[in-house]
Design brief:
The chain is an alpha+beta fold. The protein folds into three domains: about 10-175, Alpha-Beta Plaits, CATH 3.30.70.270; about 190-250, DNA polymerase, domain 1 (Orthogonal Bundle), CATH 1.10.150; about 255-385, Dna Ligase, domain 1 (2-Layer Sandwich). About 35% of the residues lie in helices and about 20% in strands. Strands 5-6-1-7-8 form a five-stranded mixed beta sheet. A four-stranded antiparallel beta sheet has the order 9-12-10-11. The protein has a three-stranded mixed beta sheet with strand order 3-2-4. A hairpin with a 1-residue loop joins strand 10 and strand 11.
Length: about 450
């Protein structure tokens, strides 16, 4: 029996844009000699690290995010490696958001390479939505770079519109109206749906859902049982085109990790970088005015990995957490370290935490003073002696789900819009585009 609360044919409310092979495309936009070449972006130049992005020319060789560099080079001897430049990717992201916002307002920035736009009134007509999407593509090519392609999905809500971007890559444009939803969605594998991984697929299979056709025809009670409560309700409504209401959840964790350079793949080097990451993570924690109640450490080793955690009294104090790190480090058990990381978990705002009579103060005035001095006079003007040799290492990386970088005091890298400068010199009206370092 159909759910009377859902419209039979919901309007096309959402346009979702996914920038294709974003990090690699930015590198190609910055260097024309890379156009048409297999390019992979890496955290550092080492065969034992992993690719974090690949151009479509590299993907043709089976190279993707997570492919080891030595394996990638075996698959493609002509592969060009570029060390990641996070500030550059953020700068391009900001420019893309700006120029597209001049076409229709940005409703939501989902990640560094994804954004959603709301469609209203006549914009919801398929022909008009298609024209808007094509204008966006042409604007990116003209104002940013011809190297930047994107896939665009249009659907009744952001959930389905994001799915639509995956149906045609690269440079795709898919409008999921009623007819398209009926023909295209049932052909998807369950794991093609955002939010369904192998573990969730097993749960769906246990509930009798083995295909997308099963998922699309499952009744509400079945989805509630398969996904667990209200999540199943949301899936039932979203796949039928109901409006998607964004639920903002408080931050639960904050983490930093670093692939060690070959010279630091020792016990001493691992510890030094771990301390550096902890200091940076706590500065970031204080910038959000949060406390951590659990600390996790992990070391990925080429022969043996190690991880450990401990619950602690809520704090944002650097000395307090470093004391815990030192105690946990005494129990280390790994071999040939490759990557280290620290997670601050079970975060809570100071106003939501009532300390016990036996807890030390969770705020350390010296930390605030150091943060303020670095914010005013520049990064690392004041720092712990223990990070003297590593303070310039483990710089901020930009993950796909992030849209900004945490600045440890002052601006780390200045960027200028060189293409605008060229236009101004030629007497043209300034637009936007190629962003290059000074």
């Amino acid at each position: 029996m159909p759910d009377v609360r859902l419209p039979k044919e919901p309007p096309l409310r959402s346009l979702f844009l996914d920038l294709n092979s974003y990090f690699a495309s930015v590198e190609q936009a910055e260097d024309a000699s890379l156009l048409g070449q297999p390019v992979a972006v890496v955290p550092l130049m080492a065969d034992t690290t992993f690719c974090i992005a690949a151009s479509y020319e590299a993907k043709a060789y089976g190279i993707k995010t997570g492919t080891r560099v030595d394996e990638a080079r075996q698959r493609c001897p002509d592969l060009i490696l570029k060390v990641a430049r996070p500030s550059l990717y953020v700068a391009y992201h900001d420019e893309i958001v700006r120029v597209l916002g001049n076409i229709i307002p940005v409703q939501r920035v989902a990640s560094i390479d994804e954004m959603e736009f709301g469609l209203m009134g006549s914009e919801q007509h398929p022909d008009r939505a298609r024209a808007i999407a094509q204008t966006m593509k042409e604007t990116i090519w003209r104002e940013i770079s011809p190297a930047m392609n994107c896939s665009i999905g249009v659907a009744p809500n952001g959930f389905l519109a994001k799915i639509a971007t995956e149906l045609q890559k690269p440079n795709g444009l898919v409008i999921l109206d009623a007819a398209a939803r009926e023909t295209m969605l049932p052909t998807l594998a369950l794991t093609d749906w955002t939010g369904i991984n192998r573990k969730m697929k097993a749960r769906l299979n246990a509930a009798g859902i083995f295909s997308s056709a099963d998922l699309l025809t499952a009744h509400r009670v079945m989805l509630r049982q398969a996904f667990g409560g209200i999540v199943g309700d949301r899936w039932y409504e979203w796949i039928r085109g109901a409006p998607q209401v964004e639920v903002k959840r408080p931050r639960q964790s904050l983490s930093h990790s670093n692939v060690l350079s070959p010279a630091l793949r020792t016990d001493e080097g691992s510890y030094a970088i771990l301390v550096r990451l902890t200091v940076k993570a706590l500065a970031r924690l204080r910038s959000h005015n949060l406390l951590t109640q659990r600390v996790q450490l992990h070391v990925k080793g080429m022969e043996k990995s190690w991880e450990i955690e401990r619950r602690i009294p809520a704090t944002q104090s650097t000395p307090a957490v470093l004391k815990v790190i030192n105690e946990l480090w005494e129990r280390r058990d790994f071999a040939r370290p490759l990557r280290v990381g620290v997670n601050l978990v079970d975060l809570v705002a100071p106003s939501e935490h009532t300390p016990s009579l036996f807890e030390d103060a969770f705020l350390n005035p010296a930390d605030d003073t150091v943060d303020q001095l670095n914010a005013r006079f520049g990064r690392h003007k004041v720092f712990l002696a223990s990070i003297a040799h590593t303070k310039e290492r483990a710089q901020e990386r930009i993950a796909f789900q992030k849209t900004e970088l945490f600045q440890e005091g002052g601006t780390q890298e200045p960027w200028v819009n060189t293409r605008n400068a060229e236009r101004m010199a030629e007497g043209e009206e300034a637009g936007s585009s190629n962003l290059a370092p000074q």
